[in-house]
Amino acid sequence: MAETIPAAGATTEGAIQVGQPRDARVSAPASYDVADFPVPNGREEEWRFTPLERLRGLHDGTAVATGGGVKVEVSAPAGVIVETVGRDDARVGKAGKPVDRVAAQAYSAFEKAGVVSIPKDAVLSEPVRISVHGQGGVAFGHQVVEVGAFAEAVVVIDHTGDATVAANVEYLIGDGAKLTVVSIQDWDDTAVHAAQHTALIGRDATFKSVVVTFGGDVVRLHPRVLYGAPGGEAELYGLYFTDEGQHQEHRLFIDHDTPHCRSNVAYKGALQGRDAHAVWIGDVLIRAEAEGTDTYELNRNLVLTDGARVDSVPNLEIETGEIVGAGHASATGRFEDEQLFYLMARGIPADEARRLVVRGFFAELIQQIGVADLQERLLEKIDAELEASVV
């Protein structure tokens, strides 16, 4: 079914500012040391949407790792190297430093890091699957995915169970390599998950990220893209389904500091239930030295019931006029009765019509995953969410 864009609601095409002072949101300090970040109080721009009281101490240092916080298992095709390394491994921290206190806390507190290495020139026929299953405790994690030059791989990181987790995930993408990462947040309703994902893209390399968020009490993800050489391409896709009482926050930052690189962002969310709260922040910075940049970011939200709230803030800052293109857009709308009537007039029952509209809204992003069993699982999850709702 074709994509359905909400007809009602506010639509904003963001203005482009050239040569203005740099916004603090896109020039956050970076440090491996948690002491370099003050404890947030909720009035800071980067924390104003986050319910700090529900982070269970991840933001103020009171959360302490417990045994059995999460169980991590890796399944990888032949030729892929899977390691557990110490903090002194040269690959740890190579993609970039933490940029907020929770990420710095995670970096300061983890004991061992997981490293998955895809050798140069390898083309994997099956995905690497990393299972992170919460077992009720508190955990601080660090994962590195290293892709050698001209290699091609798909990596799936699947979060399930119940836990309180702060983590950093690094993607090191070699020259000419192609990496697709699917990060699924399918936690139990009581889980808390905060993580920074940092990708360092090599010359003429391609990075595609698909972030899927369904579960958790609070999920706060911070995907970041950095370019190590010209010719890099990044595609960041995301879908989220926010239920009653859930807080799901995705804060993206793409740092175009290298010439002739490209980025494209498309995130979509559906919300239902009282106090369902979704936050999407899209920050793109095109620095003065990044001539030839081509970038666009899009966020769409579909509100299915009363009582849900969306905060969508696209930000685009440009310091050079020598670019190919740049733009951003955001739209939030209600589920339209007219859409249901159109389908029901053709003999489709109301529940089935509603399911088709929401499936159509997400269809383009689900197709980006490219892993058949995951795509089917996510469609089934969407159907289950809709069946559980009260309209």
UniProtKB/TrEMBL annotation:
Residues 1-21 are annotated as: Disordered. Residues 134-361 form the SUF system FeS cluster assembly SufBD core domain. It comes from the Bacteria. InterPro entries: Fe-S_cluster_assembly_SufBD, SUF_FeS_clus_asmbl_SufBD_core, SUF_FeS_clus_asmbl_SufBD_sf, SUF_FeS_clus_asmbl_SufD. GO terms for biological process: iron-sulfur cluster assembly. Pfam families: SUFBD_core (PF01458). NCBIfam families: sufD. Belongs to the iron-sulfur cluster assembly SufBD family. This is Iron-regulated ABC transporter permease protein SufD. It comes from Actinacidiphila glaucinigra.
